[in-house]
C-alpha cells in the first residue's frame, strides 16, 4: 500500500490482472509482482530514470485530465510546453 506506482492506471490494471492469473496461492504475493515489475526500486534508479518516470507520470496525468484523443494530446503538449512529437517520445 505504501508503494508509489510509477505507471498509469492501465499499467497498474495489467499488473493486477497478471498477478491474479499467475498467482499460485490464495493471496497475491509481493514476489509475484516483483517478477513482472522487475527488481529495481526507486532507491536503485539513476536520476535519469527517475526523471523519465516522473515526466511520464506528469504527461499521463495531463492526458487523463484533458482526454486521450489526438486534439487533447496536442493540448496537453501545449500546456506542458513541449511538441506533440516530444510528448509521444516521452511516453514510450
Classify the helix fraction into a percent range.
55-70%
- Indicate the proportion of strand residues: under 5%
Mean pLDDT: 81
Total of helices: 5
- Using the alpha-carbon principal axes, give the shape: elongated
Low-confidence stretches: none
Total number of distinct structural domains: 2
Note the run of SSEs as H and E: HHHHH
| Spatial separation of the terminal alpha carbons | 27 Å
**Number of DSSP-assigned strands:** 0
The gyration radius over C-alpha positions equals 16 Å
Structural class: mainly alpha
Largest pleated sheet: none
Structure description:
- This protein is an all-alpha fold and 92 residues long.
- The chain has 2 domains: 1-39, no CATH class; 41-92.
- It is 66% helix and 0% strand.
- It contains 5 helices and no strands.
- Helix 1 crosses helix 2.
- The chain is elongated, with a radius of gyration of 16 Å.
- The model has no long low-confidence stretch (mean pLDDT 81).
In short:
This protein has five helices and no strands. The protein has 92 residues and is an all-alpha fold.
SSE blueprint and pairings:
Layout (H helix, E strand, L loop, with lengths): L8 H14 L7 H8 L9 H20 L3 H11 L3 H8 L1
Helix pairs in contact: 1-2, 3-4
Descriptors for this entry?
92 residues; 2 domains; elongated; mainly alpha; 0% strand; single chain
